[in-house]
Every structure is written in C-alpha cells, then in structure tokens.
Design brief:
Distance between the termini: 39 Å
Oligomer: single chain
Helix content: 55-70%
Radius of gyration: 24 Å
Largest sheet: 2 strands, antiparallel
Strand content: under 5%
Structural class: mainly alpha
Low-confidence stretches: 5-13, 20-25
Order of helices and strands: EEHHHHHHHHHH
C-alpha cells in the first residue's frame, strides 16, 4: 500500500523500520552563505600561495616530465623540471587577483559614470550614455586584444585592456538603477526639501544601486577568469617563464598526448576558479533576493 506524502513536505522521506522519517534539509540561506564564503576562502588561499607552494615556480627542482606522484611532484613536473603544482598555484593567484582588480576598477569607473548620468539627467546623461554605448557597440574581446597588442603583452596591460571593455556594463546597470530610484517618493521629497544634488546622489541614490551592482560584479568573476586565461592563452599575458594558467596550457600543448598533465593541470585550475566564481555569484544573488532570510 502506497503511503501518500503531503505536497507541502520540504524534506526528503526515508523509510526506517517500516515508517517514513523526514531527512533534514539544509537551509537555503546556509547553502548560499557557504557559496559566498568560497570567495573569502579562495582569496585567503591565494594570499597564502607563497607558503603553500612546495617549490619556486620559476626554478627547475627535479627531473623533467615526471608524472604526477613521482619524485615528490604531486601534479608532476614540466619539460624543464619545474613543479606543476607550484606553477598552477601561482597562476591561480594572479588570475584571481586580476579578476578582482578588474571588477573593482569596472565598478569604480562604471558606477561613477552611471551615478552621475542617472542623478544629473539632461544633456549630461545623454553624453555619458552615448559614450557608454560606443564602448558597448565594440566587440569586447577584439577591443581587448587590440589594446594589449598596442601597449605590448604584459600583466598590467592585460588588466588595463579588460578594464576598458568591462566598465560600460556597470555604467549602464548603475544608471538604470539610479534613474529608477530617482522617481521614488522619498527622493522626490528630498528634492523638495532642498537637498543638494551631491548629497542626494550619495545618501539616497547610490546606496540603492550598490546591491545590484555587487551581484552583477560577483557573477562576472568567473567570466573574467576565463577572459584573462584566454588572453594569456593567446600570448597576451605575462612573458615566459611567468606562471600563468592560460599561457602554461598554450606553451605545453605539444605534450598533450604523452605528458598530458603539463597542459591539462593549468586548464583545470581555470575551470575550478571559474566554477567557484560562478557559484559564489549565484549564491550572492540568491541571498540578495531573499534579503538574507
């Protein structure tokens, strides 16, 4: 005889000694908080990379082409005897911090332009948004490659190039949020009370636009890691022998069929970082939607 389970049940039933026992389910808030905490954990790990890495990523420390687990190399050694694990850790460090820097610069520039455009309106809004639209109309990857090619391949130039193509998204987002908030009754009341435009933007408009901008930025971390790895893969990152995940995969593709770990491990590093960034972004968005409940 089938036992009917109420449609409103929120826990999965489990049969124990002839009766159903509800298994406790973790709170969605707890799950989302853990997801957001991943960003903090990864940041702490990459800060501690000089302590965690077993060897110097630039110096040969053993026989070349050692398989994972051989001669003390947890992830193997590359073609000149450098520790692959150390290079992956240092490459992950530069990729993670680079993504955070681009997000911060994009939020600062795009947020400021969007705030000024939305709070001021009129011809200022029109001019700033047309400039933003001009950047958005250009293919971002091609523009980033062109900037790096013009400035010369380097880590700093890559950050500049990606920041140039990233801020317009935040500018548009913040401008839309500010324009929406400007029509709210409390903002209209502040205008009638004679509040200055600067104070109006800082006290009444910017705080309302920050949460959505932060969620959008957190969702971009994974995409930024993939973008930076792609530019590095194309040779537009740091010069050899600097450890970079994309560049290390590209430089060692000829070893893929025999010594697969040399190009694959850096690629897995990109995968893990991008996955953590995407999961943390989704969890932060869910927390914002539920108000932390």
């Amino acid at each position: 005889m089938a036992i009917a389970v109420p449609a409103t049940a929120t826990a999965l039933p489990r049969r124990r000694k002839g009766r159903l026992v509800a298994l406790p389910q973790p709170s969605s808030t707890v799950v989302n908080s853990i997801g957001v905490s991943l960003v903090i954990v990864v940041t702490l790990i990459v800060i501690a990379v000089p302590v965690l890495a077993p060897h110097d990523p630039l110096l040969p420390v053993g026989m070349p082409l050692q398989a994972p687990g051989e001669s003390g190399f947890l992830l193997g050694s590359d073609s000149v005897g450098r520790d692959v694990l150390s290079r992956v850790l240092y490459g992950a460090r530069s990729s993670w911090f680079a993504a955070l820097v681009v997000v911060a610069v994009g939020l600062l520039i795009g947020g400021l332009i969007g705030l000024i455009a939305g709070a001021t309106g009129g011809w200022v809004d029109t001019v700033l948004m047309r400039i933003t639209d001009a950047f958005l109309s250009l293919p971002a990857p091609v523009l980033a490659i062109a900037v790096v090619a013009a400035l010369g391949p380097s880590f700093v130039h890559t950050l500049i190039a990606v920041s140039i193509v990233w801020w317009p998204f935040y500018g548009r987002l913040v401008r839309g949020e500010v324009a929406r908030l400007a029509a709210r009754p409390h903002v209209e009341a502040a205008k009638l009370a004679g509040v200055s435009r600067f104070r109006l933007a800082g006290r009444h408009l910017m705080p309302g636009a920050v949460p959505n901008a932060l969620v959008a930025a957190s969702l971009d971390i994974g995409t930024l890691i993939l973008t930076l790895a792609a530019l590095s893969f194309l040779g537009l990152g740091q010069a050899a022998p600097a450890p970079e995940l994309g560049a290390d995969s590209a430089r060692n593709l000829s070893y893929f069929l025999q010594q697969w770990w040399i190009p694959v491990m850096p690629g897995l590093g990109v995968l893990v970082l991008a996955l953590i960034g995407n999961v943390a972004g989704d969890c932060l968005r869910n927390l914002m939607k539920t108000g932390g409940r």
